[in-house]
Each structure stands twice: as structure tokens, then as C-alpha cells.
């Protein structure tokens, strides 16, 4: 690559020099991982994505997916090459409109080498053309693409994007989305955000969805099948879209009786956590054999098994609380899972209190008493549970217990001010457990490191004296709150 040096006096020279592209000698490869402590190969370094435009075509009968992804990003260093996380077959890659060399490495790395290095601080665009059968693609020993009798679903945590679009797959790199999907007439395509338009041509219907607020890759979802769809608006005018597979069988009624209360639940949660952070809401229940639920942004995914015992508003409360805790305020590192799950679980305790099925204090006392000191439950540290225990009961129950201990220690006024202030100050960003401790100390004016060490970072049951200090009852047999079992069922539904 050859440069012509321009000699221009003063500030003009500095501006022109800034525009000179990076030289091959100065540029280096972006890291093949973003630096996560649990998942070192997830995400990538060297750039930041601002927008994904996904134009897809999916045939439910064969599970064939064809796509063109246009990715708008900014270079964070002079890049000689960079990676995307992806597992389907790629036919062509263009960077800045020019064909780029590419190769697959590992089971989910797409390594791209542009014809010329990318300059730090400057935007660039990547186009990836691809195709494949997602359900047949195995990466890291599994597939996150779920087949249904009439289509397919992308919903999993901590990864699901690899099976349907190339991405920088880590919550640290959030972006906005346009998802356009063509499916055979009579079939629907559901995604996040608002439905901007539909059009039909030659036997295919195209659905165009838009997510206008920053969104993590694992929170981006796609559901193709034959759904019964209900639409409404909230009192504030937000569109509500819910979808149910037509073949849910005995679970259909309970699913509707639960998910259709989403707007009501969001209105209540807004009084506790602050204004709802997005421009749409809802949920969907496809006919899948899985047991988990997932807080996919604006439109949570629910497995039919979540409603096998009847209506389950507690599950809806949990997933919608994640819209604040996990979706709007996302974790920095997967070890920070407590900033997602501890708060969503505590939302269920608050809902139980509101519904007269057991106060948060009663649930905390029962949680503490229910697990003997030698139970493995206490070995898991919610503040850093390890990848093998990310969705352990302790992250949920002990995680909520830590928040009740905080509430008792600092009082309701400061506690609820912290919940609202935290979601406001970190809206659309990322935060860690440490960040929350620092914020809670700032608002309450109290040192809280010892409290959080006790309840989040100690691999043993806190002693009775510590429980009393947190105003928890160390009694051996408190009365079990009415909501307890339903909340436990929800945690098992939420596991992967």
C-alpha cells in the first residue's frame, strides 16, 4: 500500500493526516475473543458494532436459512483482520464494498481479512452472505436452534446468534437491529421490537422488524411458524405483540392467561424499577420441547412447559423484570450474572408481596431456613458462580436473599431509590456486580462490602448472627409462603 505525503501547514495538515488509512505495517489482528472470564472465545476485539441489518429467507419444511447480514461498525484499532462469531456456511464477505478473504476457524469463528487495513476510529461496513440448516450445525457440542413442527426458533443463553447471523457475540457490544425475514405465505416470523411492515410476493411474506435501542446479541430472537397473534397497546401507547403456536395443546390456555398480562406487569414493574426502557413489549410461546424461558428483548421466549401447572404470572414477572436488569442494563462479564438473575428473582418476591402470597421478608426467611449448612446450595457464590453454575438455584434464591439483606440494612427509601437510580444511570449500558456495590454505597452512604461479601461471595451458609444482622430470621421452620413453590418452578424453567 502506497501513501503520498501531503505537506500542508497548520491545523489543516493535522486533519488530513487523520484521514490517511492505516498502513499494513501498523495494523494488527483483532482479538478472537472480547475478554470474558467465563467464555474467552465469545465476542471479538478491535471493533464495535452499531447496527445489524439482517435480510433472511427461511423455509420451514427443510429448515433452510439464507441470509445477507450488513454490519455497521467502528474500528477500535488499526485492523489487519477481525473475527465474527458464526457457524453457518459463508459464500461471500465484503468489507467497504470490496471482496474480503475469509476462513472458518474453530467451530464459531469467521476470520475476515479486508483488502486494506481498517483505520482506528473510522466506521466500516461488512456484508456477509450465508446459508445453511441451523438445526444440523453443532458448535461447542450443541445447537441453539430449536426446531418446531412448523418452523424454527433462535433463543438461548449465553449464545444463540451463531446459528442465524454473524456477530460480535457478547453483551459488551450492543447494537440496534433491522431483521427482515421472508417465509412462505401462511407462516409468520416473530422478532424483537416493532413490526414496521409486511409484504407478500410470489408465495412469500416478508416481515420487517426493528429494534431501535441497544440490544445484546443473545437477546436477539427469531421465531418462524404458525402462530395465533394478539396485539394491543399499553396505556402509554406502546405496542404489545404476543404470539402462541397453534399446537400448544393443553398448555394453550394457561400460556395465554399468563402472557396476556404482560402489559399489566410492565406497568407495575415501572413503578418499582423506573420507566420501561423500550418501545415495544410482549412475549411468545412456540411449540418446543425445552423447559426454559429467556428474556429476549421486548419479547421474551417461553417454553410451553412453563405453563404445564397452570397460569404462571411469576414467570412473566421474572422475564419482564429482565427488560431492566439484563437487557437495558446488561452485564459486563458473564461472571456478573447476578446483576441479571438476582434482580429478576427479587422482582418475583416483590410481586408475591403485592399479591398477598408471601412478603419478601417471609421468602427471605424461608430461603435461609430451607437449605441446611451442608447443602451444596451454599457452595455457589452468586457474585461469581462459575460457568458451570451460572443458572444454579443459588444465583436466583441466594441472589434475591442478598437484595433483601441490603433492603433491611439500608431501609426501603434508599433501597428502592437504588433500584430506580441504577436502571436510569446505566440505561442501555453494561455494569458489573462491583459497579452495583459501589452505586449502592454512594446512594445509601453506608459501607456495604462486608454485606455483599457475606451474601454473594462466601461459599458457605452465613451464620445465624450474620442473618440476624441482616434482619433475617434464623428460625429452623418458618411457614412456607404460598408463592414459594411457583417461584422455584420458575427457576427451573429458567435454567438452560
From TrEMBL:
Signal peptide start and end residues: 1-24
Domain of life: Bacteria
Entry's EC annotation: 3.4.11.2
One Pfam family per UniProt: Peptidase_M1_N
InterPro entries: Aminopeptidase_N-like_N (IPR045357), Aminopeptidase_N-like_N_sf (IPR042097), Peptidase_M1 (IPR001930), Peptidase_M1_aminopeptidases (IPR050344), Peptidase_M1_dom (IPR014782), Peptidase_M4/M1_CTD_sf (IPR027268)
Domain Aminopeptidase N-like N-terminal: 50-219
Cofactor(s) this protein cannot do without: Zn(2+)
Domain spans labelled Peptidase M1 membrane alanine aminopeptidase: 311-455
Reaction catalyzed: Release of an N-terminal amino acid, Xaa-|-Yaa- from a peptide, amide or arylamide. Xaa is preferably Ala, but may be most amino acids including Pro (slow action). When a terminal hydrophobic residue is followed by a prolyl residue, the two may be released as an intact Xaa-Pro dipeptide
Keywords attached to this entry: Hydrolase, Metal-binding, Metalloprotease, Protease, Signal, Zinc
Keyword rRNA-binding annotated: no
Renumbered residue ranges of the record's region Disordered: 467-496
Broad EC category: hydrolase
Family of the protein in this entry: Belongs to the peptidase M1 family.
Protein name from the UniProt record: Aminopeptidase N
Organism: Streptomyces mordarskii
Amino acid at each position: 500500500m502506497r501513501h503520498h505525503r501531503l505537506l500542508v501547514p497548520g491545523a489543516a495538515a493535522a486533519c488530513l493526516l487523520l484521514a490517511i488509512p492505516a498502513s499494513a505495517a501498523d495494523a494488527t489482528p483483532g482479538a478472537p475473543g472480547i475478554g470474558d472470564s467465563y467464555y474467552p472465545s465469545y465476542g471479538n476485539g478491535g471493533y464495535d458494532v452499531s447496527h445489524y441489518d439482517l435480510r433472511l429467507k427461511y423455509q420451514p419444511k427443510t429448515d433452510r436459512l439464507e441470509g445477507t447480514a450488513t454490519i455497521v461498525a467502528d474500528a477500535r484499532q488499526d485492523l489487519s483482520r477481525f473475527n465474527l462469531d458464526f457457524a453457518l456456511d459463508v459464500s461471500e464477505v465484503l468489507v467497504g464494498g470490496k471482496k474480503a478473504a475469509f476462513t472458518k476457524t474453530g467451530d464459531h469463528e469467521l476470520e475476515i481479512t479486508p483488502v486494506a487495513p481498517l483505520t482506528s476510529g473510522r466506521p466500516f461496513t461488512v456484508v456477509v452472505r450465508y446459508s445453511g440448516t441451523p438445526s444440523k450445525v453443532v458448535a461447542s457440542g450443541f445447537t441453539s436452534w430449536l426446531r418446531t413442527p412448523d418452523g424454527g426458533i433462535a433463543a438461548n443463553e449465553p449464545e444463540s446468534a451463531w446459528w442465524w447471523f454473524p456477530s460480535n457475540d457478547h453483551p459488551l457490544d450492543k447494537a440496534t437491529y433491522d431483521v427482515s425475514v421472508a417465509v412462505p405465505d401462511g407462516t409468520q416470523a416473530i422478532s424483537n421490537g416493532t413490526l414496521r411492515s409486511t409484504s407478500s410476493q410470489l408465495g412469500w411474506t416478508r416481515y420487517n422488524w426493528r429494534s431501535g435501542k441497544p440490544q445484546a446479541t443473545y437477546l436477539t430472537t427469531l421465531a418462524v411458524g404458525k402462530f395465533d397473534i394478539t396485539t394491543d397497546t399499553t396505556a402509554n401507547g406502546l405496542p404489545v405483540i404476543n404470539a402462541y403456536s397453534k399446537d400448544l395443546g393443553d398448555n394453550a390456555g394457561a400460556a395465554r392467561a399468563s402472557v396476556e398480562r404482560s402489559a399489566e406487569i410492565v406497568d407495575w414493574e415501572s413503578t418499582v424499577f423506573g420507566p420501561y426502557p423500550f418501545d415495544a413489549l410482549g412475549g411468545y410461546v412456540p411449540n418446543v420441547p425445552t423447559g426454559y424461558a429467556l428474556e429476549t428483548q421486548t419479547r421474551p421466549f417461553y417454553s410451553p412447559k412453563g405453563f404445564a401447572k397452570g397460569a404462571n404470572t411469576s414467570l412473566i414477572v421474572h422475564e419482564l423484570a429482565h427488560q431492566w436488569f439484563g437487557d437495558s442494563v446488561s452485564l459486563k462479564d458473564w461472571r456478573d450474572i447476578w446483576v441479571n438473575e438476582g434482580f429478576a428473582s427479587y422482582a418475583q418476591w416483590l410481586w408475591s408481596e403485592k399479591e398477598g402470597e408471601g412478603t419478601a421478608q417471609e421468602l427471605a426467611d424461608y430461603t435461609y431456613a430451607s437449605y441446611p449448612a451442608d447443602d451444596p446450595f451454599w457452595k455457589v457464590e452468586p457474585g461469581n458462580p462459575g460457568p458451570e453454575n451460572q443458572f444454579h438455584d443459588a444465583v436466583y434464591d441466594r441472589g434475591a436473599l442478598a437484595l433483601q439483606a441490603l433492603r433491611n440494612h439500608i431501609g426501603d427509601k434508599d433501597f428502592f431509590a437504588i433500584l430506580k437510580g441504577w436502571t436510569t444511570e446505566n440505561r442501555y449500558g453494561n455494569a458489573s456486580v462491583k459497579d452495583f456495590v459501589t452505586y449502592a454505597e454512594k446512594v445509601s452512604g453506608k459501607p456495604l462490602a462486608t454485606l455483599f461479601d457475606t451474601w454473594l461471595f462466601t461459599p458457605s451458609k452465613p451464620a445465624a448472627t450474620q442473618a440476624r444482622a441482616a434482619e433475617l430470621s434464623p428460625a429452623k421452620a418458618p411457614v412456607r409462603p404460598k408463592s414459594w413453590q411457583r417461584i422455584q418452578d420458575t427457576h427451573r424453567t429458567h435454567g438452560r
